[in-house]
Prior knowledge:
Tetracycline Repressor, domain 2, 10 helices, elongated
Amino acid sequence: MPRPIQYEKQKVLDQAMEVFWTNGYEATSMDVLVDRTGLNRRSMYKLFGGKQGFFIRVLQNYLEQVTPAMTAPLIDKQGFDAIATFFKQFKCFDGNRGCLVTNTAVEKALFDREAKQLIAAFYDQLEQMFRERLEQAKNNNEIRSDIEIQAMAKQLLCMAQGLGVFGKVRESQDECKAIVDSMLQLLRA
């Protein structure tokens, strides 16, 4: 009878997440995943069905473990303050890794239906959070009265993802801060 596979699930997912986040999907080989996680190929295929299944599980892990801290200001704060705090926490440098969600959207969303669905669901949630905070801000006269909430929520979503891409190319936190400050100024009443 074969021995059951023994591993620390969260540790393995976190280690693989670091690899995919740093290298991207295409540049990550099974050999690197085996080396970084300590799982052998057979175990990896048995547990996740291969590299693609492993990646999807890692992306789910990122969405469950990393994004809540990023979106916390949109939950914990109200109105304009929530939006401002969300964007001011952005770092336009993170070892040039950017955001795993944004990286995946750029690298895989055109041909990977499962990854695209996960990303779309996250984008829908983020857009809804922006919409709710914008409505609060508008009701409290914290933003311009002529702002169309639906369109602006989409624009903020695009801004967040754009900053993730921008930060992979430009490592200036001063530039990032200037972009965020300019965008927030455009919202202000």
